[in-house]
Fold this sequence. Notes:
Blueprint: H1 3-9, H2 15-42, H3 46-58, E1 61-62, H4 63-70, H5 74-86, E2 90-94, E3 102-106
Antiparallel strand pairs: 1-3, 2-3
Amino acid sequence: MPESEIAAEQPLDNPILYRRFYELYRTLREIKGEIQELEGKFGIPMTHAAVLYLLAEDGPMSLSQLATKLHVRPANLLYIIDHLEAIGKVERVSSDTDARVKILRVCKW
Length: 109
């Protein structure tokens, strides 16, 4: 019987399920430590680095396009974009096709 079926049958009394939770917990702790180390090294949070990476890798895009790639709402990115703009890493420029839209691009990498 596959692990998923075993877990579905006995969610509270299943040692396989608890072992899997522990493994995930341990992995997340390791990842968190690596993230904190990188954040300290580069001086920006991981979320900010993800935004910079996407803009550098995929090129300039609107806030809406960026939000779609990150699977978040555009409003959730405003703080990050404001911060990256304030430290001179990202700039907002007018779209060539729609004056209402601002395009985000990396200005220093």
